[in-house]
Amino acid sequence: MSHLVEENLKTVRQQMELACQVSGRKIEDVKLLLATKTVPLEKLQMAIQSGETLFGENKAQELRGKFPLMQQYTRVEWHFIGHLQTNKVKDVVKYVTLIHSVDRLKLGQALHHQLVKENKSMDILVQINTSYEESKFGAPPESALELVEQLSQFETLNVKGLMTIGKLNATNDETRHCFRLLKSIQTQIREKKFPRVQMEILSMGMSGDFKVAIEEGATIIRVGTSVFGQRYLPDSYYWNENARQDD
Ligand SMILES: *Cc1c(COP(=O)(O)O)cnc(C)c1O
């Protein structure tokens, strides 16, 4: 079992290198984030032993559960990649260095409010629903510019880039379209030169489509299944409409 995580990581790393070669990119410019929802701690420790340092959680509760043990590894960094309910903001800002999933003004306000209290700031990405699928979160592409501008006015929030989930079970062309759309929104936002807004991070690509994402400019890919194996909970548990309850 221990060898499996290690072997899977080796394969993913090789595929990343290949995708970089194909698209003339440098491997240092693409970070591998391991998506750890439902993954038991032993497997995370195996990944750490293989040299991995960047992990992403979808739920505040799971993050809270895993954090104490992970804290002993000083180089380990956590990002939040799931749908964030405003009432969970307090937990999440305690543990993570980047939130990938800010997709509405109300969440920005809640984050700002908490960060002011704690006298802290937080790096964020704005999540865009590039596939227009109902089942997924993210701001509609049409409102991306406005949302980024609004979020940039909270001085505790540093907008660092954009995140998307590509269309699932789709052809390469369809997912490529999602990633190109995200890239083009990044370009449009850069042209606006909003004060304090940086746009260097593009978080896109998962197990099924990270090669395409790298070809289209991803700077962080988020991989779970390819490294840790199939999850026992369906993604709808993390992504479905019920999670929207608070807004
Ligand atoms: C689960 C998840 C991933 C990883 O998905 P895999 O298909 O298992 O690689 C990436 N991003 C988000 C937001 C996720 O919830």
What's the short version?
InterPro entries: Ala_racemase_N, PLP-binding_barrel, PyrdxlP_homeostasis. With 247 residues, this protein is α/β, with parallel strands linked by helices.
Helix content: 40-55%
Q: CATH superfamily membership, which one?
A: Alanine racemase
CATH topology: TIM Barrel
Give the tally of β-strands: 8
Helix-strand topology string: HEHEHEHEHEHEHEHEHH
Query: How many structural domains are formed by the residues?
Result: 1
Number of helices: 10
| Radius of gyration over all CA atoms, rounded | 17 Å
Instruction: Give the strand order, joined by hyphens, for the main sheet.
Output: 7-6-5-4-3-2-1-8
**Estimated structural class:** alpha/beta
Low-confidence stretches: none
Q: Overall pLDDT, averaged?
A: 92
Given this structure, which CATH class is correct? Alpha Beta
Hetero ligands: pyridoxal-5'-phosphate
Organism: Paenibacillus tyrfis
Domain Alanine racemase N-terminal: 38-230
Function: Pyridoxal 5'-phosphate (PLP)-binding protein, which is involved in PLP homeostasis.
Family: Belongs to the pyridoxal phosphate-binding protein YggS/PROSC family.
